[in-house]
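Example noted here:
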Amino acid sequence: MEQQRTIVELEKGMENWQQNMETATFGMGCFWGPEARFGSLPGILRTRVGFSGGTTPHPTYRKMGDHTETVQIDFDPALISYEEVLKQFWRNHYPNRDEYKGRQYISLLRYHNEGQAETISRVKKEMEAELGEGIETEIDAYTEFTLAEERHQKYYLKRYPKALAQLEAVYPEPELLLDSAFAARLNGFVKGFGTRDGLRQEILGWPIEDASRKILAETFMSLKW
């Protein structure tokens, strides 16, 4: 049946979207909330949480050593610019937090290319003027990122087992939530970002086949939380 296609098949056709995408890596406190916030934004293709910024090999949630909780996002710069993403980053956490738990929750920013580095330098000055104080975010070139355990990915969506049960047809395996744009939007929606009708309209404009858009939009509207 058409409705029984997995999310991989339903999102097939986003290849052109993905070819143009950029990646951003941020540490802004506990990574659950930032993943939901960024996942709700049009133009964000994928979200994932993990650990970055340290030297400890093989970090885990319980043993992250000198790493920082980090959210990593892939986005289409034609739909949402790196500048817009940066402003979301700085406006939605306190960038001068003390290291009260070591490096776990520090404000951290890793740029992926020189274009991002230049944008950071310019936007940082603008944000300092807006915030009325200096920004102490740790800024450096991107070197590594380790995925957090599966239970931390799309954390808020996973707090709704009834909805997840309804989604089993499109997500027969939990790991399929990781790279799904639809899962990123649902995770943001249940955290309170965006509106029901707004998300439906966005899905109906995605660059996938008409039948897939219809299935995803109808699936979303039929979910019981």
Observations:
- The two ends are 25 Å apart (CA to CA).
